[in-house]
Amino acid sequence: MSTSSKRRSVITLLVTVVSVLSLGLAACSGSDSAGTSSTTVAAPISVTDVWARSSAMEAGNGAVFFTVANSGSAADTLVSASVSTQIALEAQLHEVVMMESPGTMAGDSSQMMKMQQVASVAIPADGSVEFKPGGFHVMLIDLTDPLVVGSTFPLTLNFAVAGAVQVMVEVRAS
Ligand SMILES: [Cu+2]
Fold first, then answer.
1. pLDDT of residue 93 exceeding 90
2. CB burial of residue 128 (10 Å; 0-12, 13-18, 19+)
3. Per-residue pLDDT, 31
4. Distance between Cα 115 and ligand 1 center (Å)
5. In this entry, which stretches build a coiled coil (predicted)?
C-alpha cells in the first residue's frame, strides 16, 4: 500500500576555505587558445598561472595571484612588484591574515580576514610559494581603469637573486 520513499536530507556545508579549491580549478582551466603564455622563466625562478581579479570589496584596487617556483638550491626572496602607471598607481606585496573578530557575539567564534602589506616573501630553495586568494597576493593600488575580464597586462616581480621577472597577468572573473 504505502510506498516507502526514502527522504534524502541534503546538508549544505558552507566551506569557507574555497580559495584552495578555486585555485585548483584555476590551475585546471588551461585555456591556451589565446596564444599568449603567462609563463615566464628566469631560471631557477619560474612564475606560472598569473591572473588578476578586480575586488569589489576594495574599490579601485585589484589583486594579482600566481605561483612562484624555485628549482634552485638557493633560496630567493620576492622583494617588490611594479606595474605601469597606465594600470595602477602602485603594486604592493600583501598577505591575508585571520584575526579574531573583536566584537563577537556569545558563542560566535567568527574570524575576520584582514590584509596587510609585507616587506618581502621568501621563496625557499627547491620549493614554491602560492600567491592565492586568502593568502599572499600583489595588490594593485588605485587602478587607473577597472580590470576587464580577458585583458592582459605586464607585471614585474623583483627578486633579490633572480632580479626582475616580467610576467603577463590575465584578468579573470574570479
Ligand atoms: Cu591586498
1. yes
2. middle
3. 38
4. 5
5. none
Taking the centre of ligand 1 as the mean of its atom positions, its distance from the CA of residue 5, in whole angstroms, is 51
- Does residue 118 have a pLDDT over 80? yes
Across the range 65-87, mean pLDDT stands at: 97
CA angle 38, 39, 43 (to 5 degrees): 155
State the distance from the centre of ligand 1 to the C-alpha of 113, rounded, in angstroms. 11
Cα separations in angstroms, 86 against 37, 83, 155: 22, 8, 12
* Ligand 1 centroid, distance to 1 Cα (angstroms): 63
| Cβ contact 157:65 at 8 Å | no
Question: What burial class does residue 82 get, using C-beta atoms within 10 Å of its C-beta: 0-12 exposed, 13-18 middle, 19+ buried?
Answer: middle
Q: What is the pLDDT of residues 14-58, one digit of tens each?
A: 232 333 333 333 333 333 334 444 555 447 999 999 999 876 555
The model carries a pTM of 0.70
**40-101+112-171: what fold?**
Immunoglobulin-like (2.60.40)
Residue 135 C-alpha cell reads as 593568502
Domain parsing of the chain, residue ranges: 40-101+112-171
Length of the chain: 174
